[in-house]
Design brief:
The chain is of the alpha/beta class. About 15% of the residues lie in helices and about 40% in strands. The longest helix is centred in the first third of the chain and has 12 residues, at about 25-35. The protein starts with 19 loop residues before the first strand and ends in a 5-residue tail after the last strand.
Length: about 130
């Protein structure tokens, strides 16, 4: 364990977090996030493709070829312009489980389900409700 004082530039830091979801078709999952939410392709690996990743700003979401476990995982994206993301998703036929709404914890959020059944939530900071 590293006992460096808080703010110590030598202290270990996390420089990225890459949630990785099991999906039956990695290329299809990447394409879906690109089309439905405006993500960008980071990479595809293998021939045939068995691993891939998409970017959304600073967030990187990975996929590996496997059996989806949608009830075991969900992903939350803290975003700007929630309404634009919601509008794009609706226009592309994404299943929206909860429409955009403001919550007392200071977030405006909506829930969607991806092509493999994973719960995806987008949230944008707003003033907390009284």
């Amino acid at each position: 364990m590293h006992d460096a004082p808080e703010g110590d530039p030598a202290a270990p830091r996390c420089v990225g977090l890459y949630p990785t979801l099991a999906v039956p078709d990695v290329r299809e999952a990447c394409d879906w996030y690109i089309t439905c939410f405006g993500f960008e392709l980071r990479f595809l690996y293998g021939d045939p493709v068995t691993h891939g990743a998409v970017l959304f700003g600073a967030a990187c979401l990975h996929f590996w070829e496997g059996v989806p476990q949608p009830n075991a995982n969900w992903i939350y994206f803290d975003v700007t312009d929630l309404e634009a993301i919601h509008t794009r998703a609706q226009a592309r036929g994404v299943t929206i489980m909860k429409a955009p709404a403001d919550y007392p914890w200071g977030m405006r959020e909506f829930n969607a389900v991806d092509l493999n059944g994973y719960n995806i939530r987008f949230g944008q900071h707003v003033d907390p409700q009284p």
